[in-house]
Amino acid sequence: MPHFEKMLYDQAMIAMAYTEAYQATGKEEYRETGQEIFTYVLRDMTAPDGGFYSGEDADSEGEEGKFYVWTEEEIRQILSADEAHLVLKLFNVEKGGNFTEEATGRKTGTNILHLDQGLDEVVSDPEKSEKELWVSLEEARAKLFMAREKRIHPHKDDKILVDWNGLMIAALAKGARVFGEMRYAEAAQQATDFILSHLQRPDGRLFHRYRDGEAAVNGLLDDYAFFIWGLIELYETTFETRYLETALQLNDDGLRHFWDDGGDGFFLSPDDGETILVRKKEIYDGAIPSGNSVAALNLLRLGRITGNADFEERAMKIGRAFSAMVNQSPSAFTQFMMALDFGIGPSHEVIIAGDSAARDTRAMLKALREEFVPNKIVILRPTDVESPDIFRFADYTRYQTSIDGKATAYVCLNYKCEFPTTDVGKMLELLNVRN
Length: 435
Description:
This protein has 435 residues and is an alpha+beta fold. 50% of the residues lie in helices and 10% in strands. The strands form four sheets. Strands 10-9-11-12 form a four-stranded mixed beta sheet, sandwiched between helices. β9 (348-354), α14 (359-370) and β10 form a beta-alpha-beta unit. The protein is globular and about 65 Å long.
């Protein structure tokens, strides 16, 4: 059974996992789960000004999980007989409860509603189609949700942390692309605006946390790395270059104040932080990825976007600095391995040259977003603007023009570009996507 505490970083990481799982498999259950996580975050974890809260406690009224568990009798009182039959069977509700005390193992008489089989495997009704059963299920869930809202809610940890917000911004931006839900992108943009207006110092560097109108604690490596990750994802979702510009500025700050010139890699604390005996480096990818692992992938992606070879060389230095440790226990460094996979390749650069609002441009971008091709960067080179902003950051794109006024894809592998194409199918073929 799951723990009842809800942390923002957990919601972000698992939402990204379900988003990518749906992209890779097309399974509707993954899409539904991913979107329900986002619904929860937007409803319960979002501050009025746009930032995301840190978490919700496990207990309420002195009992762990009380807000979330149900008795069979409660369900029967709230739902109709048919709805109750459906819910009790599908969500594994037991008369004596399925939730046990952690210390004693004794059943509490309450239930955690959970699925272990699909609707079609559990319930059959000759008088209702599967679609009608799904409608009944959603109506029942809505009733249970409204009843649960009347309970005393768990305490909310209303700190707003830059690093954890960066993870959720990345998750929402990715979700917006894959699920076609622009409200996710809007939420990510609002959180980004909140951080830049409330948690950025006058010199452009970051604070770590915000609460009750006060920003405090100078930012650590994770704040920079995770927020830059979110900004890169937000650029690839909206193609607004302000996010790319901010990512590059913060990346420069990170290199200036956290990079170890003597041994490579990033320190956790800045060079002008509190005086300590040893400035440590983190590389272990645990409940959240390490700042070095995320920063390495950021450097690779920013290097591919801008053509700045120094960024990629820095990422390779991180790889070499920690290679012995990673070789001993690769499974403890999963985010690091993702960066390594991108760096070793194959990895692609995809530049779409076309009118930003044109149907054929949108079709190319949609096709890219529907396929799981993780090791790539995507740039939009607008042709409806005489000198688009992207030229300031990726000068090489000025030479990648559209063919006969049509949306044109330039698919490159480690900077070596194939002949441009106006055909969506050919573009996917060049990316080794098998339909």
